[in-house]
Fold this sequence. Notes:
Helix content is 0%, strand content 63%. It is mostly beta strands. The strands form 2 sheets. Strands 2, 3, 4, 6 and 7 form a 5-stranded antiparallel beta sheet that branches. Strands 5-1-9-8 form a 4-stranded antiparallel beta sheet, with no helix packed on it.
Amino acid sequence: xxxxxxxxxxxxxxxxxxxxxxxxxxxxxxxxxxxxxxxxxxxxxxxxxxxxxxxxxxxxxxxxxxxxxxxxxxxxxxxxxxxxxxxxxxxxxxxxxxxxxxxxxxxxxxxxxxx
Length: 115
């Protein structure tokens, strides 16, 4: 049976939500995944910052929702940007814009796993 993983490669801050920096955390399919560890944890990012993430997550459907949030909650008014990534994405690394309250670039790769 074939399965698919989503590898989040890196995150780049193009524009913050208005201040000098954003306190950023990532939610994947409704679960806080990055930064790992503390469920309330976040990473502070300023314009021009890159973070190499290199974490893999297994697809459980045709799409995986990846959303960035600022502050300490996952409310709609704290969303910095997001995207639904299809498991049948083009091969190789892809970069997409996450724009809502801020502008981030997310680099990812969908990995096909043949059993």
